[in-house]
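Progress against Task 2.4 (sequence-to-structure conversion) is shown through the following example record, which the project officer requested during the mid-term review.
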Amino acid sequence: MVNLTTAAAVNGYMTSKSYIEGYAFSPKDVEVFGKIGLPDKATQPHAYRWYIHIAALSGVKCLPLVSGGAAAPAAKPAKAAKPAKAAKAPKAPAPAP
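Structure tokens generated for the chain above:
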């Protein structure tokens, strides 16, 4: 078995695979997942793909990285739009004398 303790090693190993062992999610995927952090999407695309997939299967939430290696800041919730005021019906003209 290949030593899969770094994202770089996982990237090389996962170029033509979907899982660490065999053709289905296994405890070995969870083991390797726990040893590496979130790989860089640009430089380690195979490890990143595998990591996001295993995170989804495991129910783990992970944030994608932004340039500089920091986690993306949480977005502020948008303010709710104010409801439009109802248009007033035009006044009926006064009766002619």
